[in-house]
Amino acid sequence: MTSQADYKDRQFLAVIGDEDSVTGLLLAGIGHVTAPPDSQKNFVVVDNKTDNATIEAAFDRFTTERKDIGIVLINQHVADKIRHRVDTYTAAFPAVLEIPSKDHPYDPDKDSVLRRVRRLFGE
Amino acid sequence: MSGASDREAVFPTRQSLGLMKAKLKGAETGHSLLKRKSEALTKRFREITRRIDEAKRKMGRVMQIASLSLAEVTYAVGGNIGYQIQESAKAARFRVRTKQENVSGVLLPAFEAYQTEGNNDFAMTGLGKGGQQVQRCRETYARAVEALVELASLQTAFVILDEVIKVVNRRVNAIEHVIIPRTENTIKYINSELDELDREEFYRLKKVANKKLRDTAAADKEMKEKREARMAELAARGQENVEPEEYAEPRNILDAEVDEDVIF
After folding, report:
1. Is A43's CB within 8 Å of B86's CB?
2. Where in the cell is it found (chain B) (predicted)?
């Protein structure tokens, strides 16, 4: 069970996605850079040249290391690259949310949570 | 079920019988309560899964509109503003806070989006041209993020409820299939042992009674013989005396009656 202290100070959103998604979400005002000594951004831009290890490291950083992130948004096509990590991630905090991107329409069958929903109801 | 061996290690006494009966009653109450809790949670769970399904579809549409407005911005500004925006992001304007909701004793956290006033990292974005589009894009994305936040809280509730329901169902099954049968077995065992003890005690008392009867009969016989011998002796002496006879007989009868009362 998640203790209360675990999510009290989770107040930011993080995003892993392609440039357009990140730009749009930053425009909405979710971007945050921590204090200078180890200024950490809460967004990661993924393009064709980004290798999976980098994505995985970013995913790990947002989900396990940082304690101030409440929701991790990840583009579905990016999540597909690290599908095993996303599928095995079952903790409640931070919540991992797969979002569609401009070039990749949303496919509910790939979503890890929706797949669990379907499995539970045997569809 | 492994029959008689599947019971708790207790001594078959009346006290532990009482304890076991209380335990069985407690287990049954707990079972029905947990079952109801599980049902309430499952109801909630189904509702949440349905809402997740809806929200995911809605999110697809909202994100599509949002990326369209971003494309408008790109067109209006006449270049990619991504780099500029990534560099100028400093402090989050859009944040979430968590609040809790209580569903049958389970604390479900829910995210709530709020915007902090006063810091605008993108004041300069679109200053040259396309400022209107940028503004509109920001609003669209803010709405999209709100939808995403809502979806995220649904999803968190889903994950937590899933876990809790599993735990509760496990408990319900454990009580139903392990604890209740075992307690019933123990009660049965104690009852049979107590019955056995009762029968043993009864048999023992019967034995004692038989022995006493035999002893009394023997004593009677002996006494009778003695008396007859004495009578014969007295008769031989030619002297009739009723006193010892009357003294002896009532006492014997009383003894026998007292004994029977004790036994049965």
Report:
1. yes
2. Vacuole membrane
With residue B113 as reference, give the H or E element that holds it. Answer: strand B106-115
Residue B159, token pair as written in the block: 């994950």
| DSSP-based three-state secondary structure for B177 | helix
pTM, to two decimals: 0.70
CATH architecture of B8-188: Orthogonal Bundle (1.10)
CB of A110 within 8 Å of a chain B CB? The answer is: no
Q: Are B67 and A21 an interchain contact pair (Cβ–Cβ within 8 Å)?
A: yes
3-state SS string over chain A? CCCHHHHHCCCEEEEEECHHHHHHHHHHCCCCECCHHHCCECEEECCCCCCHHHHHHHHHHHHHHCCCEEEEEEEHHHHHHCHHHHHHCCCCCCEEEEECCCCCCCCCCCCHHHHHHHHHHCC
A32 vs chain B: nearest CA distance in angstroms? 4
DSSP letter, residue B126: T
Count of CA atoms in the C-beta half-sphere (13 A) of A63? 19
> Which ipTM was obtained for this model?
0.81
Query: B215 burial class (0-12, 13-18, 19+ CB within 10 angstroms)?
Result: exposed
C-alpha distance from A59 to closest chain B C-alpha (Å): 17
Q: Is A101 on the interface with B (CB under 8 A)?
A: yes
Tell the residue number behind the tokens 């979503």, with chain if given. A111
- Per-residue pLDDT tens, chain B, 264 aa: give them: 445 568 888 888 889 999 999 999 999 999 999 999 999 888 988 888 888 888 888 888 888 888 888 888 888 877 777 777 777 777 777 888 888 778 777 888 788 888 777 666 666 666 666 677 888 888 888 888 888 888 888 888 888 888 888 999 999 999 999 999 999 999 999 999 999 999 999 999 999 999 999 999 999 999 999 999 988 888 888 765 555 555 555 555 555 555 555 555
List, as ranges, residues 136-165 from B with C-beta within 8 Å of A: 137-138, 141-142, 144-145, 148-149, 151-153, 155-156, 158-160, 162-164
Kindly determine whether residue B64 and residue A31, on different chains, have CB atoms separated by under 8 Å.
no
CA distance A117 to chain B (A): 7
Q: A108 and B56 in contact by Cβ < 8 A?
A: yes
Judge: B63–A100 Cβ closer than 8 Å, yes or no: yes
